[in-house]
Amino acid sequence: MESMRDLLRGELAHSLQSLPPLERLAMAWPVAAGSSIAARSAVSALDKGVCTIQVETPQWLAQLRPMEERLRIMLTDVAKVPLTALHFEQKP
């Protein structure tokens, strides 16, 4: 049986289809990353399959870099935007 989380992800992916890719990624980020990560970071750019995520502090930057592959897979799954990588950078 499909879990409620999986069901909600599927519904979100369906509802985002009409948006441009960058907006789909931005809307999907809190679902893919979780609320505590999303509260301290945001999707800021998309270029040739690389999604840039701006992060509040160097500490969060250090925590997210090792999670890049898992977060990329989850974000791709929710947003239905093919990504080759996530690039994390500190907010200016």
Structural key phrases:
92 residues; globular; single chain; 53% helix; GMP Synthetase, Chain A, domain 3; alpha+beta
Which sheet architecture does the biggest sheet show? 3 strands, mixed
- Using the coordinates above, name the CATH class: Alpha Beta
Average of per-residue pLDDT values: 91
Count of helical segments? 5
Proportion of beta-strand residues:
15-25%
Rg from Cα: 13 Å
Low-pLDDT ranges: none
In one word, what is the shape? globular
Structural summary, described in words:
This protein is α+β, with helices and mostly antiparallel strands and 92 residues long. It has a single domain, classed as GMP Synthetase, Chain A, domain 3 (2-Layer Sandwich). The chain has five helices and three strands, in the order αααββααβ. The protein has helices spanning 4-16, 21-33, 35-38, 58-64, 68-79; strands at 41-47, 50-55, 85-90. It has a three-stranded mixed beta sheet. It is globular, with a radius of gyration of 13 Å. The chain starts with a helix and ends with a strand. The model has no long low-confidence stretch (mean pLDDT 91).
Question: What's this model, at a glance?
Answer:
By secondary structure, the chain is an alpha+beta fold. It is built from five helices and three strands, in the order αααββααβ. The chain has one domain: GMP Synthetase, Chain A, domain 3, CATH 3.30.300.
